[in-house]
Write a structure and sequence with these properties.
146 residues, alpha+beta, 45% helix
Length: 146
């Protein structure tokens, strides 16, 4: 089988489907690790007065070649979220500035929970794609055997 646009060989439909779904599984798994890191650091403040706390990270996804003529997705890195830090009044903290305010991470627990749920659902959807493709391959082989 060849790609009509480039003329290069491509993977079969079954292999291409599996490769695309597998790349999406890997990308969503990496996304969930970034989200978990954000949640774990939601209360991480600076260790010095006036210093910056943990900054929320966002995953970066890009198209990636997963098989000859087949493009999937990959998480290529993370970028810091430019949202400003929150401030809390806590003059007893070692991270407090001269006015007694402590910079808090720019992490919203509700946003992280929603992102985690979305990533989990995308992961499950891709697992379903793989399972359905395996079932179709199995049924095809059963038909051929008859």
């Amino acid at each position: 089988m060849t790609d009509p646009a480039s003329g290069s060989p491509t993977s079969s439909g079954s292999a291409a489907t599996m490769a695309i779904a597998a790349s999406a599984l890997k990308a969503q798994q990496a996304r969930m690790r970034v989200i978990a890191e954000n949640i774990a650091n939601a209360d991480s403040i600076a260790t010095v007065a006036g210093g910056d706390p943990y900054r929320r990270q966002s995953p970066v996804f890009e198209p990636a070649k997963v098989a000859p003529g087949v493009t999937g997705v990959a998480m290529t890195g993370v970028k810091p979220d430019p949202t400003p830090f929150r401030s809390e009044y806590n003059p007893g903290s070692p991270a407090a500035d001269a006015k007694g305010y402590v910079k808090m991470p720019n992490i919203d627990a509700l946003t992280e929970a929603m992102d985690m749920r979305e990533a989990s659902r995308a992961y499950q959807a891709n697992l379903n794609v793989i399972e359905n493709q395996r079932n179709m391959d199995s049924r095809t082989l059963d038909i051929i055997k008859k």
